[in-house]
Each structure stands twice: as C-alpha cells, then as structure tokens.
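R.M. (postdoc): so does anyone remember the format we settled on? I'll just put the structure tokens first.
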C-alpha cells in the first residue's frame, strides 16, 4: 500500500515513520542564507552610522564592518548563512530521534545508533518537557531524548499502533531530588550519580546516558530537571 502523509509522519501500510518535519528543515536551509543576506545589507550602513558615536567601543571593528558592502562581500554573508543552515540541519538529525512504529515493534534511531523494542515491552510512552520517554515493563527508561516530530503527531502515531501513550509520567510522584550521601541510596548509586553529574557538567551526554543505564541496572531511574538530578526506585523493585 503506498505511503500517505499524516502531519510530520509517513504511514506505509501498518508502519509509521516519524522524522524531522520538512517545513522546519526548509526554514533552516532557506532562512539562514536569507538572514546572511539581510545582515550583509543592513550591517554595513548600521556600522557606518554607529561609528559616528564619540563613545563607541571597539571602534576599529565597527569601522571595518562599515566597509563590508561590496557585492562579493554580500555573497560571503549569504554563503556563510547557507553553511550555517546546513550545519543546523545536520545537528538536528544527529541530536533528535527518528522513530519507526509498527503494531509489534518500535525502532528508535539517534546519533547513528538504532535500538528496537517490542510493543509488549513498553509500559508507557509520554513527553517529559521536550523529551520523549519510553518506559519498560519494570518502569525503567528504555529511551529518553529530544524528539523530531511534533507532540500531536507522536501521540497520534503511538495510539494508532496500540502503544500505552500517557499525558504525563505515571511514576512522577516517586522521584526525589538527589542529595549526596542520603541514606536512601546505596553508596554505589551515589558514586554513579556523582560521576553522572560531572559528565553533565562537561557536556558529555553519551557518558551521562551510559551512567544512567548502570543506575537502572541497580534498580533506580534517574532524570534531570535543570541542573539537578532526580531519582526513583524501579516500580517493580
């Protein structure tokens, strides 16, 4: 059966592909070169006007910008915008998940890695802020990450294939803010959460994710709210 478009998802028979909306990619590819052109047109006259101020900081740099109005220089602004748009599109593909749903399985692809889960092993699917979360039968997180499709398309697709979509985290009330040394957690989990906090601080999400998986193996779930870590025991533990 030929594929049909549904919002920002594409359905083929009983398979739904959820990817980054084409309209968003088009905005990045077209909008950034246009922004470069507008900057190239507006920045030199603005810089020449601003250079007349007697208290102008970085005068030499502003005066240099005021001289960038040759056609080839405008072309450089447009080219820089095109390169920036391409890089933003690549970053969007790398950081956000794409999903393939059937009535039996869900495949999650992100950052050149792909994971596959049976529908029977998924106990809940919901959005936590800007992140999509899939929970396993033990209430542990199977997947957590930024989602490319819009929220309405996600909910529609998961429900259509019989997945347990939830409006919020069904275990939200079980989370506690992590306080180093609290007697509620084993020393091993404290050490892992301390290492995970350091990984988040140095902006190493893959390391933080691997540490979170290890925490789960010990019977706990961890998530972030701002700069704080929150934990809860597995519901089946």
């Amino acid at each position: 059966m030929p594929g049909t478009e549904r919002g920002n998802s594409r359905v083929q028979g009983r398979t739904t592909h959820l990817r980054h909306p084409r309209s968003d990619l088009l905005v990045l590819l077209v909008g950034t070169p246009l922004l470069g052109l507008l900057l190239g047109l507006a920045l030199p006259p603005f810089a020449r006007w601003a250079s007349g101020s007697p208290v102008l900081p970085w005068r030499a740099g502003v005066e240099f910008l005021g001289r960038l109005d040759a056609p080839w220089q405008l072309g450089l602004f447009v080219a820089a915008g095109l390169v920036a748009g391409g890089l933003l599109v690549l970053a969007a593909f790398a950081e956000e998940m794409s999903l393939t749903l059937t009535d039996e399985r869900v495949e999650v692809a992100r950052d050149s890695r792909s994971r596959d889960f049976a529908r029977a092993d998924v106990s809940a699917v919901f959005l936590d802020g800007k992140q999509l979360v899939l929970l396993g039968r033990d209430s542990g997180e199977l997947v957590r990450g930024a989602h490319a499709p819009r929220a309405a398309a996600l909910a529609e697709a998961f429900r259509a294939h019989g997945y347990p979509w939830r409006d919020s985290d069904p275990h939200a009330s079980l989370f506690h803010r992590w306080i180093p040394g609290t007697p509620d957690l084993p020393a091993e989990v404290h050490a892992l959460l301390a290492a995970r906090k350091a990984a988040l601080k140095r902006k190493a999400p893959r390391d933080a994710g691997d540490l979170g998986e290890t925490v789960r193996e010990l019977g706990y779930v961890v998530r972030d709210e701002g700069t704080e870590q929150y934990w809860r025991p597995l519901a089946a533990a």
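R.M.: ...and that's the designed sequence above, right after the tokens. Also worth knowing: Residues 1-8 have pLDDT under 50 and may be disordered. The radius of gyration is 24 Å.
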